[in-house]
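Sequence in, structure out. Go.
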Amino acid sequence: MEIFHYFCFKVCVAFTFFSLVFASDPYSEALLSLKSELIDDDNSLEDWLVPHGVNSSVEVHACSWSGVKCNKDSTVVVGLDLSLKNLGGILSGEQFNVFTELVDLNLSYNSLSGQLPVHLFNLSNLRSFDISRNNFSGQFPDGVFGLQKLVVLDAFSNSFSGPLPVDFSKLEFLKVLNLAGSYFSGPIPSEYGTFKSLEFVHLAGNSLSGNIPPELGKLKTVSHMEIGYNSYHGGIPWQLGNMSELEYLDIAGANLSGTIPKQLSNLTKLHSLFLFRNQLTGSVPDEFSELLSLLSLDLSDNRLSGPIPDSFAELKNLRLLSLMYNEMNGTVPRGIAMLPALETLLIWNNFFSGSLPEDLGKNSKLNWVDVSTNNFVGSIPLDICAGGVLFKLMLFSNNFTGSLSPSISNCSSLVRLRIEDNSFSGEIPLKFDKLPGITYVDLSNNKFTGGIPSDLPHASSLQYFNVSHNPGLGGVIPEQLWSLPLLQNFSASDCNISGNFPATGSCNSVSVIELRMNNLAGNVPTSISRCSSLAKMDLANNQFTGNIPEEIAGLTELSVLDLSHNNFTGPLSAKFGDFSRLKLLNVSFNNISGSIPSNNLFKLMGKSAYEGNPNLCGAPLRPCSTSMAIFGGRGIWKLIWVLLLCSGVVVFLVASTLGIFYIRREGKGQWNMISFNGLPRFTANDVLKSFSSTETIPAGSPPSASTSKVVLPTGITVSMKKIELEGKGIKTVSEFVTQLGYARHKNLVRVLGFCHNKLVGYLLYDYSSNGNLAEKNSMKKDWTVKYKLIVGIARGLCFLHHECSPAIPHGDLKSSSILFDENMEVHLAEFGFKYLAEMAKSSSSETFSIREAGELNTSLKEELYADIYSFGEIILEVLTNGRLTNAGETVQNKPLEVILREVFADNEVSSTNSMKEEIRLVVEVAVRCTRSRPSERPSMEETVKLLSWSKSQRNQTELMKPNQYT
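Output:
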């Protein structure tokens, strides 16, 4: 019936369309024909209508339509702007033969697909042609030479493939050529050096190869050139130094080798030079000091050696200097500190030595300084924050000594301070009430004394604080510490801290507490139960006493609990066995007594988790006596409780059976069925009958909330998931399920149907026969398999985020929700189910309708960012064969090189392995996806492009520049 109604609607639309066209002018007729080819879900072209009885023989009726621009007399259409209208479909292009006077055509920011119509090249008067951010595919068609008056051609971010069209070079008036972000392959044609008027050329993010043609040096009119994020051979042609008007040059991420040509110093108008992420060698040319207009110089992530040229003191306009990730050495010239415009200095991960210039920060408004992982000595320059805008100061992994300058406390702009792995000493002089924006502080592995500053609880924005491995620190934990509203990580292990564990107030955000190897004593407060987000608590090697609080067992997010080497007494509560996430429990070397509960979780921890407790027994330790083993020493009372419990269970089962029978009987005839492509048309009763074949449930009973395998009457095997419904919200749920049903992608598990009444619903999915990622993570896989797996997950998530309207957050991305089909292709399961469950609990349709209307943009973005974070953690889990789980925060607190060494070891990658650079890239993607600040994470669209970059086989596209690293 629905199909019949849809067919009738289409017939009516077509009839109305042809009726209107009959009375219309040629322009309006052509545009209405174009409208009929477009998918317009937002109805953005609703005003494209011709009223009945209108004679448009003189004026063009379409001149009043949105996006249509006409001449002054409204007799000729000269412009068509359909950008940002969420239009889809495949264009024939035949309608454009009418628009002989069209000057501007803008189809950007839509979802148009298929091949670009060759008819568009008949628009001989066209000057601006913008088809950017669509999904046009195939080779760029021949015939562009017909656009002889064209000035702007923007085809950025499509899916074009094949070679770059040579004919573009014949467009005499072309000033802007943007072909970036597609899949063009092969070399840049040497003919591209013959453009006569070109000013802007952007070819980055394709699959281009071959040598960069030296003929590009003949482009005397080009001021902006981006040709990076491809996979070229050879080096940078010295002839590019002849591009006398060039102001912006970006050839980053392009597999370039050899030295940097000194002839680039002839580009006296150049203000931005980006050559990062290549394999360039040799030293930085001294002649670069002649680039007096230079604002940004990024040569990071290469193999450059030698010192920073002293002549760089001449670059008075330089704002950004990024030389990180190279093999450079020597000292930082004093002239760098004299540059009046310098804002960002990134030279980390090199072999620099000596002291930092004592005037660094005195003569400019520094906002970001990162000199970490070098061999610097001495102290922090006193005036490093004199400009008042320094927000990131990264000095970790050097050989700095002396006390920390009190001037750092006057740096009210500071957000991130990392000085770990040095030899700083003396008291910590930070005044946290003067650092209102500080979010991240790492002082670990130094020689600080004098205790943790007592005003630490005044740092209202603080998220991460680490002062571990300062063995002479001493002092106590500040009393109001846990009241910090945003605190997530507090680490103070091996600091000789004494006193008690402070009572916790509202500590909902705290996820990590590390206090091992101190002198803390007394009881662990029961108020710890308020830390609802706590995932790791390490209190080992202290002097805590009393019972282990049962309240800890209520922390459902806890995955690591180490209480070893203390003086805890009393029994070990069986409630700890209820943890769903607990992966490590260690209570060894205490005075715990009684029996170890028989729950499987306790057995999984191994003997070492319990040894050193003489009065503790049970598996995996020595067997307990009979009464202890069964009832833990209170035999008769526990027996009574067991008997009562069993009686209660029997009564419950009988009542449940009768209840289910009653609901099934009373609900008969009230069931509805929504089917999508892939599921044969049959009734809800057919689905209900299949409950008897459900593998994971008793015959004749509906499935539980967990996913079940069901064989339908036609013999098709599906997965079924139950959801409890509220009668008033069924419309909302059905609408959202329909959206899920139409979300089809090769890396998503298909939603096949939805069977429901007013109280309960069953979602039907494709059945995946080869298990999930959680089951296979520990299996050894080669790099190719891991890469394919990661990219498949990314593409499925990208489809949900960027190709569904509105976007669908997955909501619960984890290894157990990533399934494999019979061909071991990866599929994301249960996407959107979390939000479906939330809607089902709601008594109104607010949740879905508001999300659809876009009024919850902030909330939706947060949900999408959470998916991206989970994806980053999944990458780490795959790369380490399951060793690293929920490790997003862990990798943010480690130098990248340390993480890479671990991942290389997990994948048995040698220093000469050809896969090393690819693995490095994927690790960097994981690090970016798990950044603590959501706005710093790449979108899934950007992430897919990042993962597509490779030296030889995989598509290259725009990466986030290294100067955006945290």
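Check: Residues 635-666 form the longest helix (32 residues). The CA atoms of residues 704 and 722 lie 6 Å apart.
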